[in-house]
Amino acid sequence: MIKYTLSCDTGHAFEGWFSSGADFDRQAELGLVSCPVCGSAAIGKELMAPSVSTSRKRDESQVLMMDKARKEAIGKIRELVTAIRENAVDVGEKFPEEARKIHYGEAEQRGLIGKASVDEVRSLLDEGIEIAPLPVLPDDVN
Questions:
Q1: Which residues contact 75 (CB under 8 A, 6 or more apart)?
Q2: Do 66 and 89 form a contact (C-beta atoms < 8 A)?
C-alpha cells in the first residue's frame, strides 16, 4: 500500500491509501478520488518524503492517529454513508446491471449500492451513469 498526501484544486489537503501509483492514477482519471471537504475531483499529489522499510518485521497494525478535526470529519462522513446505506438497495455484484436498468428507464428509480470492477466503473461513467464510491472508514477495517 502507498499513502499519498493529496490536495484538491481549492487547497484542501488530505491523505489517501492506494495499492500502487498506477492505482491512484487510474482512480483519479475515473474521478473516483475526491476531496473529503469540498468534493472536488481535481486532485493532485503533494511532495512527500519517502518511507524507507527496514528488514525488521512489524507485528503491529497500521493505525490512523486522529485529532479532533479528523474525528469530527470522519463522524460526518460516517453519518452520510449510514444514510446512504439506509436509503439504498444493496444489489451486490449486480450493481452495473441494475444501474444501467435505472439509467435507461427499464427499472424504477431508486438508490443502489453494490460492487463493480474498475472496468465496470469506467464503462458506467462512459455511458453517463452517475456513480460514486463509498469510502471505507477506519472502524470498517480495524
A1: none
A2: no
DSSP count for the chain of H helices, then E strands: 5, 5
E strands, the chain, where? 2-8, 13-18, 43-45, 89-90, 112-113
Calculate the CA dihedral of residues 58, 17, 129, 36 and round it to 10 degrees.
Answer: 130
What are residue 43's DSSP bridge partners? Answer: 8
Separation CA 122–CA 116 (nearest Å): 10
> For the whole model, what pTM was predicted?
0.51
Compute the distance between CA of residue 61 and CA of residue 56 in angstroms, rounded to an integer: 14
Q: pLDDT digit string (tens) for 4-50?
A: 889 888 888 888 888 888 888 888 888 889 988 888 888 888 866 55
E-assigned strand segments in 9-142: 13-18, 43-45, 89-90, 112-113
